[in-house]
Amino acid sequence: MNSKAVSHVSEITIPFYDVDGLQIAWHGHYVKYFEIARCELLDKIGYDYSAMAESGYIWPVVDLHIKYIQPARFGQLIEIQSLIIEYQNRLKISYVIYDKLTRQKLTKGHTTQLAIAQNTQELQFVSPAILIHKIEAFSHD
User: Using alpha carbons only, how large is the chain's radius of gyration in Å?
Assistant: First the structure.
């Protein structure tokens, strides 16, 4: 990666509809929290999902890893720190979820996405130049 890390911090208050009877966020909702953070991060660099499609590529998530450390609870304000950690041959983003007030780490993980050309449906073994340009332009600002 270049001189400046490409990262973003998102905030979410855990809503009632995300929790179980013990008022703990259901484990599957963390994928949604990662997605919210990823969308905000991609928007920040100017290459959101609409821009990806317009550039001729789709970027499916092909790998997801989550490690649960402490549960998030109803009404808790959390921060999701997202960071692009690889982008040359794939797009790999790491996530750490913290309690906003106590800074206690709740969850961590990462996702990996691969570029597929829309017109041919072929997997791209090198990231498209537009992604590399967007990331490197942002990291030099």
Answer: 16
